[in-house]
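Field notebook, page 239. I keep forgetting to write these up properly, so this time I am using the form the group agreed on. The chain and the ligand, NAP, are recorded exactly as supplied. Prediction of the bound pose follows.
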Amino acid sequence: MPDTSAEPSRRAAVIGAGGRVGRAVTAALLRDSWDVVAVVRDPERHDLPPHPRLHVTRGDAQRPDGLAPALATVEAAVLAVTPFTAPPDSFDGFDPDYYVTIVTGLAAHWPAPHRRLVAVGLAATLRLDTGELVMDDPELFPPFLRPFALAHARQADALRDTGLEWAMLVPPSGFGLAPPAGPGRSLVREPVTRRQATAGLSHADYADAVAGELGAPTLHGGRAAVVPPPVDDLPMLAG
Ligand SMILES: NC(=O)c1ccc[n+]([C@@H]2O[C@H](COP(=O)([O-])OP(=O)(O)OC[C@H]3O[C@@H](n4cnc5c(N)ncnc54)[C@H](OP(=O)(O)O)[C@@H]3O)[C@@H](O)[C@H]2O)c1
């Protein structure tokens, strides 16, 4: 469909565009008139539907020097990669700095004047209004997955030191388990309630929140949970 917008397109990279979250974010950004550079490890294997503003490029997030030419063309990026599509049998050999390496590498190899990064978070890292983290409650998060949760948590700490204009949007633990609810989602600062941390949220609704944070940023150097309606009565950052 031709783009009838009078505004010049903005350009964003989606790193991990072939994954569940990456595909939904790519679709939301294309809908919002972004040019999207879809970074995938194997362009032959992705199944992203063709689109005139979609540019698929090969890249490995753990080798961000190779991403520099693509990053130089974008003002924004979404980080949606995971080393585990399904829970692993073991964390032997897992690098706890998996995400730290990626975000510090992106910052070092992204030679653009405006560098807005939205990182996909993990529900296990959310702080509850009881003072606990979700990952501390074995009813909410399997303890054997803790190394992965800690690697995600380290990502936020590393982002604070990068100089990037970053935000982390944390989905609830029912991510991907609810049908799209449409408008009405909220970004909620921590601490969150147990109900908010465990809500169901579709990938499409989460992707809308990401597209919103790229198009009209409200979070500057911070994290928020993406919560579907209805939500508890907590301070909202955006509707
Ligand atoms: N409730 C929650 O909090 C929750 C639930 C699910 C996911 N998440 C988070 O959401 C994010 C995305 O997860 P997902 O469900 O979309 O996972 P997914 O479907 O497994 O997709 C992950 C994508 O990452 C890509 N990838 C992995 N390593 C990469 C690298 N080094 N360079 C470039 N691409 C790489 C994979 O590409 P290949 O095709 O090349 O393997 C794959 O397309 C992760 O941060 C995950 O932890 C959170």
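OBSERVATIONS:
- The chain has one domain: 11-238.
- The domain at 11-238 is CATH 3.40.50.720 (Rossmann fold).
FOLLOW-UP: compare against the apo run.
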